[in-house]
Amino acid sequence: MKETKFLVCFFSLDGAELLASCSRCLAPCTLSTTVIGTFLSVKQLCTSCGHLRTWNSQPCIGKGALPAGNLLLSASILYAGASPTLVLRVLEFLSVPTITQRSFLDTSPTISCHQHQEYGKRRRQHSLQQLRTEACH
User: By C-alpha distance, which of 59, 88, 62, 58 is closest to 73?
Assistant: First the structure.
């Protein structure tokens, strides 16, 4: 998914009338939320006309309905060669709901081993080239 992603404060959805009022009659709505890692689902129920609408922050992938953001986060951590513990801690400090360390370990095998190997090889070659360049100076 090459599209741009954003961090969005929940108040922007709830308090800014985006989800606070009914899209049919503009009456106030009650909201219920479900959070799965980086995924947010908001069910909006109109207190007047009973209209029910569901908004999801991202698509889900596959039969098990894995939130795309959770898989993308795991893949990004792996491809960047970053520490999952540190990346997840940064998100925690930002109050961004995220995957757990266990979730990271569970989803990382779904990312192609071949891609891991190729990326690791390119990264090692790049590091060696940098070391050679620094050694020459």
Answer: 88
